[in-house]
Write a structure and sequence with these properties.
mainly alpha, Hypothetical protein af1432, 3-stranded mixed sheet, 596 residues
Length: 596
């Protein structure tokens, strides 16, 4: 019996048959699922208590007929949406927008009213494949519809809806869609128009916030203009215009938008929001995001001018913003969170090299100054000029980006997320904090174990784990009290020590790269300048020795924040938080003293 490869839609319907089908059908579905997981006939037979021949026969039948070997389940729209765990708020909003667009553009497309319910149902189902195969959920949704009978609709109507679901994202190629080519010629243009309306409507809730409203459509000979309002209207409008490509191809008329401006939100009020045990986790996330976005905005002017302090503040704000989205991401809809994380990652990737080059350049200049004290005639190490040139280039790139439209757009997107959050689920702080803190502590334990096995490369990962614990405590500190602040101070000391070790490794790597390029450059010269390489080699050796001494000093700063000790202190915090009290700080043992 050959191994079966199941498509996401096949896996979905086989699980459905296994759970809801009659006994014989359910058994055959379980056989197909086990065969699809690679189980041989003997293992399937043993698992289900059937004969090996029977297991092989059922698996081979499915291999030949696929889902055709099973009856198509007859489900209502509500049953289908429930089985696929569809986000109903987004589905309903897109359906309402689709119907509104249908009405407002009727003078252009002239489609009969009987197509309205088909468009509405297709819109409700457009993300039906999201939980089955997210990257290709448009085709997974199409396959799901093809494997069932939707109660109240004919086969032809289901084909039209399958086309709309398939066409709602990615480039549309109708001639490659079997459901489309199987339709009568008279149904094909209406199908494309319905799909085009759905694409635009889906774009109008790209933010997944259900806040963008359509107030009407202004029709002119060359363009239709959608009149919109809402906190996410500008971003949703841009996406809708992009997804209007099918409409332009079919109707030969462009799509524009006009969004009603809104007053800027007051982030400072959110940043000062009081928090306590019953504060929703989503509000805690908004508070953390507001605090750090305000930090970015207050340092924006200085960062554009290249001020090192302002650049550092913006870099740290971007890092904390992304950390907050990672820590609290499960409470919000995935799509906007993932998009913002990606943009913030790009900010970090832009600013971190500036920080790194400034740190190693400052260190090189400090070493040069020490050399000059001993020898006033000492030549400047050539690495300084090379790194200074690189710093100027990286700084110019950062200043250009920070003062450009993408930085402004990101701040707008963050503001919109904070003021109109796409909340997916929620829980109070006293229950949500426990899971988040224990998760980051478990990661810290893993990193500690790796370092204990003498793997120096893991020190950087340990620093990142320490940083996540620190950020988490900082986000919660307003509700956790002085003990959390003491823990944060311990973490900061260790993070600084690990940061110095990390900077030392970066410095060693950059010096090695410079020496390699220096050697290649000097080999091409008629009169090589050997003094340059000698001074850099001395510098490299000195800093290698410094790194070793720094490693020996790590243990005293590490002891207070080992994961096992942190876990005990975190449990004290969590118990106090649940009880609504602020935990007291126990005196820290001193060398030679026993604290009762």
């Amino acid at each position: 019996m050959d191994t079966l490869l199941l498509t996401p839609a096949e896996s979905f319907w086989l699980r459905w048959h296994a759970e809801h089908g009659e006994a014989a059908t359910a058994r055959r579905a379980r056989i197909a699922l086990l065969a699809g997981s690679g189980a041989p006939a003997e293992a399937i037979a043993a698992a289900l208590g059937i004969s090996t021949i029977g297991a092989a026969r059922a698996a081979n039948q499915f291999a030949r007929q696929r889902l055709g070997a099973f009856p198509h389940p007859a489900l209502s729209l509500d049953e289908t949406l429930s089985a696929a765990h569809v986000d109903m708020a987004h589905a309903r909003h897109v359906a309402d927008l689709s119907l509104a667009l249908f009405e407002h553009t009727h003078s252009l497309h002239h489609l009969p009213a009987k197509l309205r319910p088909i468009l509405e149902t297709a819109a409700m189902l457009h993300n039906v494949g999201l939980g089955i195969d997210e990257p290709q959920h448009h085709t997974a949704g199409r396959e799901l519809l093809c494997g069932m009978n939707l109660i109240g609709y004919t086969k032809e109507q289901q084909r039209i809806m399958a086309c709309a679901v398939s066409f709602h994202r990615k480039p549309v190629k109708p001639e490659e869609e079997e459901n489309y080519t199987a339709l009568p010629a008279a149904r094909r243009r209406p199908t494309l128009i319905l799909s085009a309306l759905l694409r635009i409507a889906d774009g109008l809730d790209w933010s997944q916030s259900q806040t963008t409203r359509l107030h009407g459509v202004v029709i002119s000979p060359k363009v239709i203009t959608l009149r919109l309002s809402g906190p996410e209207a500008e971003g949703d409008a841009a996406r809708a215009r992009k997804k209007a490509d099918l409409w332009r191809d079919v109707m030969h008329i462009d799509v524009g938008t006009s969004a009603t401006p809104r007053p800027p939100p007051d982030l400072s009020q959110l940043a000062e929001m009081p928090i306590g045990p019953e504060t929703p986790m989503s509000d805690l996330a908004r508070r953390a995001l507001a605090v750090n976005l305000l930090s970015w905005q207050s340092n924006e002017s200085g960062s554009v001018d290249g001020d090192p302090t302002a650049l550092k503040a913006v870099r740290l704000a971007a890092r904390r913003l992304r950390a907050a989205l990672i820590l609290f991401g499960d409470y919000f809809k995935k799509k906007p969170v993932t998009r913002l994380q990606g943009e913030l990652r790009r900010v970090e990737n832009l600013l971190s090299p500036v920080r790194d080059i400034e740190v190693i350049l400052a260190d090189a200049r400090a070493y040069q100054a020490e050399r000059s004290k001993d020898n006033a005639a000492a030549e400047e190490m050539p690495v300084i000029a090379a790194w200074d040139k690189e710093r100027q280039r990286l700084l110019a790139e950062a200043k250009t980006w920070l003062g450009g439209p993408r930085a402004a757009d990101l701040q707008t997107d963050l503001t919109n997320f904070i003021t109109a959050p796409p909340v997916r689920q929620d829980e109070p702080l006293h229950t949500g904090a426990a899971l988040v803190l224990r998760t980051v502590l478990s990661e810290l334990e893993e990193r500690e174990a790796a370092v204990a096995r003498d793997k120096p490369k893991t020190y950087h990962r340990l620093r990142l784990a320490i940083k996540r614990v620190r950020y988490t405590l900082e986000f919660y500190s307003a509700a956790l009290g002085p003990l959390s602040e003491e823990m944060i101070a311990d973490l900061v000391r260790l993070q600084a020590r690990l940061g110095a070790l990390s900077d030392g490794r970066i410095l060693q790597k950059r010096l090695a790269e410079f020496l390699d390029s220096w050697a290649e450059d000097q080999a091409r010269r008629k009169a090589p300048q050997l003094f340059g390489a000698h001074s850099v080699l001395q510098y490299s050796q000195a800093r290698r020795e410094d790194w070793g001494r720094g490693l020996k000093k790590l243990k005293p700063d590490w002891t207070p924040v080992r994961a096992s000790r942190l876990r005990r202190r975190v449990n004290i915090l969590l118990r106090a938080l649940k009880a609504g009290v602020v935990p007291k700080i126990a005196p820290r043992p001193q060398p030679g003293r026993v604290v009762a």
